[in-house]
Amino acid sequence: MKKDNQYKKILISRTDSIGDVVLTLPLAGLLRLQYPDARIAFLGQSYTRSVIGACSFIDEFIDWQEISTLPVVEQLQRFRELKAELIIHVFPRKEIARLAKQAGIRERIGSTGRLYHWLSCNHLVRLSRRNSSLHEAQLNLMLAKDILNKANLSLEEIPLYYGLDKHDPLPAHLNDVIDRSRFNLILHPKSKGSAREWGSKNFAALSKILPVDKFKIFITGTKAEGELLRSEGFFEQAGEVNDLTGSMSLGEMISFIQAADGMVAASTGPLHLAAALGKFALGIYPPIKPMHPGRWAPLGKKADYLVADKDCSDCRKSGPCLCMLNITPLQVKQKLEIMVYPYLQQP
What we know:
Elements: E1 9-13, H1 18-22, H2 25-34, E2 39-44, H3 49-53, E3 60-63, H4 64-67, H5 72-82, E4 86-89, H6 94-102, E5 107-111, H7 115-120, E6 123-125, H8 136-142, H9 172-175, E7 183-188, H10 200-209, E8 215-219, H11 223-231, H12 234-237, E9 241-243, H13 250-259, E10 262-265, H14 269-276, E11 280-285, H15 293-296, E12 303-307, H16 322-325, H17 329-344
Parallel strand pairs: 1-2, 1-4, 2-3, 4-5, 5-6, 7-8, 7-10, 8-9, 10-11, 11-12
Helix pairs in contact: 10-17
């Protein structure tokens, strides 16, 4: 492959969760920088459409959820109609790799770790995510190292290439709850099962010890997560909080994060969105590899994390992570105050 190829259309394939998609945006940023005349399309799940729509580096969203329901003949026709000259299989899917080859996409990049890539891709990259010490965002860039002049970005450089600057206006009823005299903090207690959680009791306790004269606290999550929090007695245990669970679309959530000042969450999509939007983003992580922050930390100028200072896998096969649950609300409060101290000192 040549780094000076003039592609007319590049297709990035990543059909998994919101956080994974956010950490793939820097790949689109570097591709845009190197191939300014190329049309960049993103193949993803329908629920990630708003993330892609907010990224100025990506021209087109392709809904895999929609395509996957079509008969195979029509799926192939849709892939041919894309007229892509290059596809990068960031998240490997056997059926997408097969369709890309059958549709005649000229250059097809995949990792050597999937046997079917040896049959469907014509450019293989030796990449082991499981055993790598690199961050997920760095691993995504390594897939395209042979077509990028610079793919080995540091963690400090990656936030320059998110491109999340196309925000919808925040609806008036959400804009009205923002208090510019206080730090508007989002607590996102649940993860939809995508990450180990810190526990609703810890989040409730944190909300009670943050000073109300300095922090206005919002609770976010899906409608189902809100119902789960209520069933756990979260709102009875919490301090002065504003319940926004189930009240926002993803596009509205992105705009609300942009309007707010910071977020505390586990390793979830909203946390990565907050970091990418340049907000204070404090993640709470397990020390278990590969779930640890070395692989999944939020990356942003104001992002940081808390994790137990140990190499532990005791809870790998169980649900809750005891090392994570044992991080106290006071520790989180102290870390948060250190992060946002200059902001809190403003008159």
